[in-house]
Design a protein that fits this description.
alpha/beta
Length: 532
């Protein structure tokens, strides 16, 4: 079978283009922690390659012969909720299932586990009992990889962490030499709600961890190496600029990289002509298809937007607020652990695809229920009539903003989201909207591209810049800053026309004073200003 780009489950190198997971971590550091009998955390956002890494490490360690390693996924115990006995049984079953799958001499280990369970005084400590028995019986120290630890909740998670902590002092003779707990979040971010209402932090329940290691996304060199595997296998090349386009879209997020490449190279029969290079335009079409299809990865991402901790961080980014925001450090780190925002400063959405997905997801129902049609705003020559379009939005905003914005949990970013929903409804299936926003920018930038010929995006295009600003410092100051920002962005994009939209959120100001249209010159560029 020909290899392909993987978008579902752990990588299998015999059928998937694969970057060796072990090469994505600092192996000398990890092996040093294991040799020093350390227990530590490995965490990363979903579909980053954690499971592939852990299985690869297990196989690599077992092949070396110094330790006996085992990978165990304990997600099934999540169904137990706060039933510690049920969860403990599920985890032991996961332990036995993993040994059956990965250890050739499983039968003897199952007998040891069964005998130890029969002797166990407390059913809630079953995991500890089995690990103790296995460690004593093994001729090699055990290395245990526990995956999906943060899928557990409440008392079941507390029980797991405390069982591990209880056996820690007995390592390596009577407990695993090293354990790696893996999940989306660092253990210090676990919020453990006991059934009696007590709240315990993960750090206090598992204070034996020595390190917390984050599995990084692909580097640009990794993305290039992955694409090269496809070229080596099929002979199909990627035209100049494709690598840069993928990097801008994904910033190396592994699932996104693979999903884009699969979409461009395998999804449709006509894409499988390996004599034709993959083009930048194909990658852009692939990006739009992913966003519109809302695959599971993107759906899970969108689901997180409902959480208050996420909203507290993402909302000021979407609003493009310009001042310093008092955001809890724990909430920022939580959003980073989820992969929603980047690791650097200032705070920004992690990559270009997420920048597109988030506002679309937040306004999906709004966009779908708006009574607006693309044909209303097309000129006889096939251009978008931006004056007519923005005039219509101005009136729409005046009539409906109060009721519509009340529907948004992201109230601070409501005007920006409502405009984007309006534009997306009209542009959908014809043009493209690129978005730029971030904390400290003081604005939201939109770049609209509309094809003007049958060649689509390969031919001539109408290119429009829209700059969105909330009026905070008075009309004159906001206008002066906005004109300069709009002109710079329009010059950067090579836009044909530029529009500055200023939203006055002061409820005491009459609508007749908020609504206006002006034309200003900024250098050699004419900018249309729309007040709302």
């Amino acid at each position: 079978m020909d290899k392909f780009f993987n978008t579902a489950g752990p990588n299998q190198p015999d059928i998937h283009y694969t970057l060796l997971p072990k090469d994505r971590v600092n192996w000398p550091e990890l092996s040093g922690l294991m040799a020093a009998r350390k227990y530590f955390i490995l965490h990363a956002p979903r579909q980053t390659g954690k499971t592939s890494l852990l299985i690869n490490l297990m196989d690599f360690i077992n092949a070396q012969g110094q330790y006996r390693a085992l990978y165990i996924n304990i997600e099934a115990a999540q169904a137990a909720r706060s039933d510690v006995l049920m969860a403990s049984s599920a985890m032991v079953q996961a332990l036995a299932g993993a040994a059956r799958l990965y250890w050739k001499d499983f039968h003897s280990w199952s007998q040891i586990a069964l005998a130890s369970l029969q002797r166990a005084a407390n059913g809630k400590d079953r995991l500890t009992t089995v690990l103790q028995s296995w460690s004593r019986a093994s001729d090699k120290p055990l290395i245990i990889f526990l995956d999906e630890v943060d899928a557990l909740v409440g008392d079941t998670l507390i029980s797991l962490l405390r069982q591990i902590r209880a056996g820690y002092a007995q390592r390596p003779e009577a407990f695993p030499q090293s354990m790696v707990l893996c999940g989306v979040r660092d253990v210090r971010d676990y919020r453990l709600h006991r059934s009696d209402g007590e709240i315990i932090t993960g750090g206090s329940a598992f204070n034996i961890k020595s390190e917390s290691i984050r599995l990084a996304d692909f580097s640009q060199a990794d993305v290039k190496a992955l694409l090269q595997q496809h070229t080596d296998a099929t002979g199909q090349t990627f035209e100049s600029g494709v690598l840069e386009e993928i990097w801008a879209d994904t910033q190396g997020q592994p699932w996104l990289v693979n999903a884009l490449a699969y979409e461009a190279c395998f999804r449709k029969p006509e894409q499988r002509d390996r004599t034709v290079p993959v083009t930048v335009e194909q990658m852009r079409q692939a990006r739009e298809s992913l966003i519109l299809r809302r695959d599971t990865h993107l759906d899970q991402l969108a689901d997180k937007l409902r959480e208050p901790r996420v909203r507290h961080v993402v909302e000021p980014i979407l609003a493009g607020l310009g001042g310093a925001e008092d955001l809890p450090d724990d909430d920022i780190q939580y959003c980073r652990d989820l992969g929603l925002i980047g690791l650097g400063r200032p705070l920004a959405i992690a990559n270009r695809i997420y920048q597109e997905v988030i506002p679309r997801q937040l306004t999906w129902s709004t966009q779908e229920t708006m009574v607006q049609e693309q044909t209303w705003y097309l000129t006889p020559a096939g251009q978008l009539d931006m004056d007519k379009l923005l005039d219509a939005f101005q009136q729409f905003f005046r009539e409906h903003s109060e009721s519509w914005l009340q529907r948004y949990a992201y109230h601070e970013a409501g005007p920006q989201l409502l405009l984007q929903a309006f534009l997306q409804r009209i542009v959908n299936g014809g043009g493209r909207i690129a978005r730029e926003y971030g904390l400290g920018r003081g604005r939201t930038d939109l770049f609209l591209q509309w094809p003007l010929s049958a060649q689509g995006f390969l031919g001539p295009m109408q290119q429009v810049v829209l700059e969105l600003k909330i009026q905070h410092k008075g009309k004159v100051a906001t206008l002066a800053t906005g004109l300069a920002q709009t002109a710079r962005y329009a010059d950067q994009c090579g836009a044909d026309s530029a529009h500055l939209l200023i939203f006055d959120r002061d409820p005491s100001v009459p609508w007749d004073d908020k609504i206006y249209r002006q034309e200003h010159s900024q250098g050699a560029r004419t900018i249309n200003v729309w007040g709302m």
